[in-house]
Specification:
- The chain is an all-alpha fold and 373 residues long.
- The protein has one domain.
- 75% of the residues lie in helices and 0% in strands.
- It is built from 16 helices and no strands.
Length: 373
């Protein structure tokens, strides 16, 4: 386990959490562009980090040329990792749909969502738990992973680069041919494969860094820290400047994940290498941050549901008008309430659903495997 990347997951989840407070005018000061749009970009940045991290971590965990890759075991482990919490939060979202004007869309979205293919159609992509759209992408990445891993096992990383070029050309053609929409750019799973591939590429480089002594010497140097901090600052600079320069141009605005790609990849690779050579950043490996990283998946899938309940409480019980700007005190109370409930709920889900069910599913598969052998 690379602790620094676990810590980074906590910050990525926090960025997504922050981004969902732009939807309502919780703070009078945030009702004007481009500041409100900057909050939206925080979520886009967080998701991009998750996608690159996914490719990196899977490559580090499964790239073993001297071992036979157990495809079935891989998919069982992936389902055990993501599905229990995803299933629970999806079912938790059902009452919101039933009680809303969107209740007619329930049956048309529930089945593809439970199969994790919901984002292959715009109608079902975010109809239940809004943030669950990315799970469809992750599952698609997992389906492609054995193909990509085969190129690395065969020590043909150039083939992985070829895949990246193919998907880049596809994305360019997609933007030329298909009418521009949020779904056709940012939310269609095939469009985001490049982030996963970049994570795999630097994961391969991380595992083979011993073949490049100069690379190891560079990352063992404490002067590396300013370079990594520069990559981090560049990501947040892009997040802040994107609404200013790209908001009026729809295509550039919806393709923001493309220009997050390089600094996000460099940052993840640099953080992993820094820890490998004893230069881990304290704000990534602090025990509280690591705890946040452990529960980040549950936190990610739960927070928007909690936000909807808290909004209902504020508007219907406390009679706070969140739609037209509120006093900053109400806004701060709303954020704190949502955050505290989400953290508590995520901690509970991690220890009672996510972790136990992962062990049960994987354990059941291994017991069946031993029985059959």
């Amino acid at each position: 386990m690379i602790n620094s990347l676990t810590g980074l997951r906590a910050y990525a989840a926090l960025l997504v959490f922050i981004s969902h407070f732009y939807i309502f005018n919780y703070f009078v000061q945030l009702t004007q562009e481009p500041l409100r749009e900057t909050l939206t970009q925080a979520g886009s940045l967080g998701v991009s980090l998750f996608f690159v991290l996914s490719g990196f971590v899977l490559t580090v965990n499964y790239l073993h040329p001297d071992k036979v890759f157990d495809v079935k075991g891989f998919y069982v482990a992936r389902i055990a990792r993501i599905y229990p919490v995803f299933l629970l939060t999806t079912l938790m979202a059902v009452p919101f749909v039933i009680l809303s004007p969107m209740k007619k869309s329930l049956w048309g979205t529930l089945v593809p969502t439970l199969l994790m293919v919901h984002c292959f159609h715009p109608y079902s992509c975010a109809a239940l738990n809004r943030v669950g759209w990315s799970i469809s992408h992750e599952w698609f990445f997992y389906l492609l992973f054995p193909l990509f891993l085969a190129a690395l096992v065969a020590k043909a990383p150039k083939r992985l680069g070829l895949y990246f070029v193919v998907f880049t050309v596809y994305l360019a053609l997609m933007e030329i041919i298909v009418p521009h929409s949020y779904y056709a750019t940012r939310s269609f799973p095939l469009n985001r494969v490049g982030e996963f591939l970049c994570g795999m590429a630097v994961g391969y480089l991380y595992l083979n860094s011993h073949n490049y002594p100069q690379l190891g010497q560079w990352f063992s140097n404490t002067r590396l820290r300013p370079v990594l901090l520069l990559a981090l600052v560049s990501l947040f600079t892009l997040m802040v400047l994107e609404p200013v320069f790209c908001y009026r141009h729809f295509l550039l605005h919806q393709l923001n994940f493309v220009y997050y790609l390089l600094p996000a990849t460099v940052l993840i690779f640099g953080i992993a290498m820094a820890e490998k050579y004893g230069n881990a950043f304290w704000f990534l490996v602090h025990p509280w941050v690591l705890l946040g990283g452990e529960i980040s998946y549950s936190f990610y899938l739960l927070h928007h549901l909690v936000l909807r309940v808290v909004i209902h409480f504020f508007t219907r019980i406390l009679h706070v008008d969140l739609q037209h700007g509120v006093h900053i005190g109400w806004g701060i109370l709303l954020v704190i309430t949502t955050f505290v409930i989400t953290v508590a709920g995520s901690w509970w889900m991690y220890h009672t659903i996510e972790k136990p069910w992962r062990k049960r599913i994987v354990g059941f598969y291994r017991s069946k495997l031993q029985t059959s052998s």
